[in-house]
Amino acid sequence: MDAKSLEEKIKKLEEFISLVPKHKATEKIVALNRTRLVKLKGELESNKKRQKKLSSRISPFSVKSEGIQVILISDYNTLGAGKTTIFHHLTGAKYENIGKFTPIPQVGIYKFNKIKFQIVDMPAIMEGASKGVGHGTEILSAVRSADLICICIDLSRGIQKQMELLLSEFSKANIRINITSPPIEIEKTGSNKIQVYYLTEEAKKYLNMDEDIKQIVKESGIHNAVVKIHGKINLEMVSDALNQSIAYKKMIILGTKGDLSNTQNQFDLLKKKYKNKFPLIIGVSGKKGEGFMDFGNNILEFLNKIKIFTKSGNKIAEPPLIVNNDSTVKDIALKIHKSFYKYFKYAVVYRKGSIMNKKRVGINYLLQNEDVVEIFTTV
Predict the structure, then answer these.
(1) Distance between CA atoms of 258 and 284, rounded to whole angstroms?
(2) Are 13 and 37 a contacting pair, CB within 8 Å?
(3) Looking at domain 305-377, does it have CATH number 3.10.20.30?
(4) Which pTM does this prediction carry?
(5) What is the block-wise mean pLDDT of the chain (379 residues), using blocks of 10 residues?
(6) Phi/psi of residue 260, each to 5°?
(7) Intervals of CATH 3.40.50.300 along the chain
């Protein structure tokens, strides 16, 4: 309460939250103060954006996405974590930067089965990156917009220190790893105060949290809203749902320098310690080219993506469309052009290995990987 500047208020509130013992009895006070912290950080970010507009410039860390964007990231170390070697192996980039600090992002294309992956060799993250150290805010901003982040961990040195630094900076930058957004919708209204609706049987188990939810929403500055609960929640999730700065990102770990001696034990330890948070951990050797055989497939499966080809007459278009694995003909029609959906008549799906190779289907037909879709319209 004595803190005067926004920065000082944020620092003191972060210290307070870190010191509160985390258990059921303190869940509410932690959630309330996390919501207050979000408001303060929002104010600080708005101030920074205004200052940035006054000195507007195009940042070299702002990389326009092309295809599926994959960022290679590591902690900062003078010896390097091996990510530039991986970048070279995937994209064919020159060797000249290997073993040196990467000052600005390096961009290349990795081609796999007619699919383009944009690989970005991002500068390493230093301690304090979330507060701007070593262009940290710009690096983390790029991380927030990528399709996939590959954390490169050097197996030839202590893995825990590397992971702790990266996970800490991601957390401070409001980046959530390999989890989905909370099953909560919060819609501002003009009146009627705050109403909470539990829309599924699972959600109804949390009816006793009604007043706590309302208090946390009010603490964010919202006094009239409809809160819709769709599933399993806790008060921290309510706070997260109010925080528009949170990014939910998919991440994998690449254990690098697997060609060096004594790295197998480190790799086994890495998998054992972090497998719950990171479902996909791959051991690689950039020098030997090991661990990249199924890299493209691994990415697609991890991101729950499939490739769909489109057909017109006798010609199959390339490259394929990359879509979610629960996509329908409707999603393809909209992805091509909204007129294909508006004037949709029917579609023909060609599927390898099926009893019926060619099938006429409707707009809601569920597609599978490598299907070929031909859409017919009324005009």
Answers:
(1) 6
(2) yes
(3) yes
(4) 0.79
(5) 80 86 82 85 77 63 87 87 89 69 87 91 94 92 95 94 96 94 93 92 93 93 94 92 93 92 91 96 84 90 95 88 95 94 95 81 96 95
(6) -80, 160
(7) 68-179+247-302
